[in-house]
Automatic annotation (TrEMBL):
CC cofactor: a divalent metal cation
UniProt-listed Pfam families: DDE_Tnp_4, HTH_Tnp_4
One term of GO molecular function: metal ion binding
Domain of life, source organism: Eukaryota
Keywords linked to the UniProt accession: Membrane, Metal-binding, Transmembrane, Transmembrane helix
InterPro entries (UniProt xref): HARBI1_dom, Transposase_HTH_dom
Transmembrane segments: 222-242
Domain DDE Tnp4 residue range list: 156-212
Protein name: Uncharacterized protein LOC116304842
Residue ranges constituting the Transposase Helix-turn-helix domain according to the UniProt record: 77-123
């Protein structure tokens, strides 16, 4: 019983309740900025900006959903917009089990699944437009601006994300060296730290090179239109064929 109470206190499962039955987890976690960043990858300020940006899109989606289901029972949202976005960000960042998220926000697993299925496409629609592949002229303009690599015009970061064992194709995601299952993502950023491309959900057993080769084609859609990091770090000349 003691251990159960410790888990409840650590996750913040006691406190403010939402009017429709959910748990106002944001009210609790906002008091711990470091824990908030660990769970979401965002600061309180940047997450607040996302809430402001997404509010109207989510409200419009909720109203459209109600109109389309006028003859059925209207679904009452048990979590407000802030907590729904928080739930999705925690899921994207930490990939927790839906049962764990349901316990944290005091809702059922089905509702957690619906939130994720509804909010993720809205986030993609809103922010994917801000990720724009640069032109060749813009890439040339970045030469000499990198702090650690002046001749670099792009940086590729491959990151692994631990996940629970999937229900299918477990071997594709298993890393023998770490004895865990992973997904990997590849992010390309400019020398001024702006994201210009992001590809995710690669099987964790792939090494960086194989994951790189699986990234979708970008740029002018040529055979070698991806940034070739190993060459760009070693040369001060941009080869058009590489962009």
């Amino acid at each position: 019983m003691c251990k159960t109470n410790d888990v409840i206190d650590r996750l913040g499962l006691t406190g403010i309740e939402e009017p429709n039955g959910g748990h106002d987890y944001y009210h609790y976690i906002a008091s711990f900025p470091i824990k908030f960043w660990y769970l979401t990858g965002e600061t309180l300020q940047t997450f607040g900006e996302v809430v402001v940006d997404m509010r109207m899109s989510i409200i419009f989606h909720d109203r459209t959903y109600r109109r389309n289901r006028v003859r059925r029972r209207i679904r009452v949202q048990r979590l407000n917009i802030t907590n729904r976005l928080l739930l999705v960000f925690i899921w994207l960042r930490r990939y927790l089990r839906m049962q764990t998220l349901a316990m944290m926000f005091k809702v059922d697993v089905t509702y957690v699944s619906k939130i994720i299925q509804e909010i993720v496409p809205l986030l993609l629609e809103k922010y994917s437009r801000q990720v724009v592949w640069p032109t060749l002229e813009e890439c040339r303009g970045w030469l000499g601006h990198g702090k650690k690599f002046p001749s670099c015009v792009g940086i590729i970061d491959a990151t692994t994300h631990p996940i629970w064992p999937p229900s299918q194709r477990q071997a594709m995601f298993y890393r023998g060296d770490k004895k865990k299952h992973f997904m990997s993502s590849h992010v390309i950023v400019t020398p001024d730290e702006m994201i210009v491309n992001c590809s995710a959900a690669f099987p964790g057993h792939l090494n960086d090179t194989n994951g790189f080769n699986m990234m979708p084609r970008i740029g002018p859609q040529c055979a070698l239109d991806l940034l070739l990091a190993a060459i760009l770090f070693l040369t001060t000349v941009i080869l058009p064929i590489l962009l």
